[in-house]
Amino acid sequence: MRRHLALFALLALAASAPAALSAQDSNAVKQDRKEVRHDRRELRGDRKDIRHDTKDIRQDRREVRQDLKNGDTTEARREARDLRQDRRDRRHDVRDARRDRRDLRQDRKDVHEDKQEKKDSTKN
């Protein structure tokens, strides 16, 4: 009797294993898709920050030129400091955007691989 019970438990476990594995696969696909959406959102934010910093840089350059033209060196130094800060911000945003593009590429690759694995597992 014990042997039959053990055999039945083993068969039940073997029958439920593929369902559990496919549930894990679908969770992996969902997580990868979520990461893709997150990376896209991050990339959009970085691009927006880059555009804003570029506009600030243009404005600061105009103000530095105008201050120097008017002979106001103190204000020109202040604007030049602001210009350096905006350039630094833009450089950091460009670096962040590059990383986000790399992450997005990797996450898209993961989604594609997960789809291929799922397709291959259903063929067998």
What do these coordinates show?
With 124 residues, the chain is mostly helical. The chain has a domain at 34-115. Helices cover 97% and strands 0% of the residues. It contains two helices and no strands. The chain has helices at 2-70, 73-123. α1 (2-70) runs antiparallel to α2 (73-123). The longest helix is centred in the N-terminal third of the chain and has 69 residues, at 2-70. The protein is rod-shaped and about 100 Å long.
Distance between the termini: 35 Å
SS-based structural class? mainly alpha
Helical stretch tally: 2
Q: Give helix % range.
A: over 70%
Mean pLDDT: 83
Largest sheet: none
The SSE order reads HH
| Alpha carbon gyration radius | 28 Å
Low-confidence stretches: none
Q: Using the alpha-carbon principal axes, give the shape.
A: rod-shaped
Quaternary state, please?
A: single chain
Tell how many strands the DSSP assignment holds.
Answer: 0
Q: Classify the beta-strand content into a percent band.
A: under 5%
Task: Provide a compact summary of the structure.
Helix content is 97%, strand content 0%. The chain is mostly helical.
Features:
124 residues, mainly alpha, rod-shaped
Provide the fold topology.
Layout: H1 2-70, H2 73-123
